[in-house]
Specification:
The chain has a single domain, classed as Alpha Horseshoe (Serine Threonine Protein Phosphatase 5, Tetratricopeptide repeat). It is 83% helix and 0% strand. The chain contains 7 helices and no strands. Helix 5 packs antiparallel against helix 6. The radius of gyration is 20 Å and the shape is globular.
């Protein structure tokens, strides 16, 4: 009986370890895609960057930075509505992500949603994103 318990325990432990290794590998691959996307975005290859961010999100659907970067790339292509959707997701994953509020505010301003932009910039400022204060000063009452 003790031997059976040991076999079950070891089997469970090895299964857990393999699952953790697979999760770690997916996380690393996702980070690699984000890094590749960032490189492409820095070269102004925004559509290619979005493809990499999509791959990162497929591997790690709760990787908030991938949504943030994908949203920024979409905004660079003037696709503000989809950018806002990505910033919303980044905020859903991390409600205190100041940059996501900052960028969402910029996208909203681009769509002439001044009240929404100012609200987002104030939240960004509250979460320590000091750049938001310049937008508040320049565009908000």
């Amino acid at each position: 009986m003790n031997r059976l318990i040991l076999v079950i325990f070891l089997s469970f432990t090895f299964t857990f370890i393999r699952a953790q290794q697979a999760e770690d590998q997916a996380q690393q691959e996702s980070e690699d895609y984000v890094n590749s996307g960032n490189m492409k975005a820095s070269q102004k290859k925004f559509a290619d960057a979005i493809t990499d961010y999509n791959s990162a999100i497929e591997l790690e659907p709760k990787y908030g930075m991938a949504y943030l970067y994908r949203g920024a790339a979409k905004a660079q292509l003037n696709n503000y509505k989809d950018a806002i959707t990505d910033f919303d997701k980044a905020i859903e994953i991390n409600p205190k992500h100041g940059l996501a509020y900052l960028y969402r505010g910029i996208a909203k301003k681009s769509l002439e949603d001044d009240d929404g932009a100012c609200s987002d910039w104030k939240k960004a400022s509250d979460f320590g994103t000091n750049t938001a204060n310049e937008y508040i000063r320049d565009y908000c009452n």
